[in-house]
Amino acid sequence: MHRRHVLALGLCAIAAPSWAAPTPYRLSGTAATITYTFTLEGTALKGTVPIDRADLRIAPNNLAASTADVTADVRRARTGLIFATEALKSRSVLAAEDFPLARFQSTKVTLGARGRISEGATVEGMLTLRGVTRPVRFDAQLFRAPGSAADDLSALRVILNGSVNRTDFGAVGYADLVADTVAIEIDANIQATG
């Protein structure tokens, strides 16, 4: 997606008065995934977990007031290798049968120095994985649909990038084979419902 489609706070000011409550958004179709990258014996591998549910509230004229509550079913996690997928869901890593849901709840959105998402933004929140909750931070991007008008915020694409240390969540299995740091990208198309 071209950078011209990056949603800037200055373009959003005309969308709603400053007192307006955040607009609820829902996932649009099936285009919502969590992609994780892990290192297995020195080789970077990717896997996916579909987003199960998302309660998103975006305030285009005050993005810092936006919130997200996202749940994924880790029993549906996949890698490109069947043995790696089974190891991932095992008790020593995700313990998917005991803790089937992972959940992210945002606590803070911070925009760039001039209050524009085009200058970068971060989303902080609490990630619950394996029944353990820890703070995490993602770099955020928000895009309008290609070719849409500057004030048309009915359809958006959200991309979050960050990383976690799996041992912080008790996912300590296969430490001799798999690195501790796991990169995460969340990519979702969303549609306004309000």
- Beta-strand portion reads over 45%
The total count of strands amounts to 9
Shape: elongated
Largest sheet: 8 strands, antiparallel, barrel
Question: Which regions contain 5 or more consecutive residues with pLDDT less than 50?
Answer: 1-19
Global Rg = 18 Å
Total helical segments: 2
Mean pLDDT: 86
For the largest sheet, list the strands in their spatial order. Answer: 1-2-3-5-6-7-8-9
Distance between the termini: 25 Å
Structural class: mainly beta
Would you mind describing this structure in some detail?
The structure is a single chain. By secondary structure, the chain is mainly β. Helices cover 6% and strands 51% of the residues. It contains two helices and nine strands, in the order H-E-E-E-E-H-E-E-E-E-E. Strands 1-2-3-5-6-7-8-9 form an eight-stranded antiparallel barrel. A hairpin with a 2-residue loop joins strand 6 and strand 7 (132-144). The model is unreliable at 1-19 (pLDDT under 50).
